[in-house]
Amino acid sequence: MVKKKDKHIYRCNACGAQAPKWMGQCPECGTWDSLTEEKLVAGTPGKAGAGKTAIAAKPVPIDSVDVTESQRLRTEITEFDRVLGGGIVDGSLILIGGDPGIGKSTLMLQVLATLSKAGKRCLYVSGEESVRQISMRGKRLESANPSLYVVSETDLDSILAMAEKETYDAMVIDSIQTVFHPE
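^ thats the sequence. predicted structure below, dont judge the formating
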């Protein structure tokens, strides 16, 4: 039987932020050499959450968290940036919701297109549309760019592998309810 490789994350000793790989500087608080490796603990078989991994989070006093403004990715879509307080905070996760057909997919493709035209490497993952459909919308929106990648995928492990293999500045998963974990 093949033993699964242990998974690790890196946690900042100063602010508690997590990163998937070691970096010399914490992306949240900017402290140098503060990331330490932590092993992810596998869930106990037969119990709720079996097979999932957990990280023992360490509570920190709220007044000890460095809240200096992080660099934001500006999309140049004025209202989108305004709603996000001036742009996308590096490392953030944003959930966009709304009625079917209201334009969420189009908006997010426009956001990635704008970022990619500014030199950012972006990935658009679709669980509902083919790469061809996304590309057709991209051409209509004049968003074709060599820094904007598209893929049709619903397997969480495959999506995570793509994100770990390549470095992307921004990624959209459309739509999150179509994504599944194979276990």
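Residues 43-50 have pLDDT under 50 and may be disordered.
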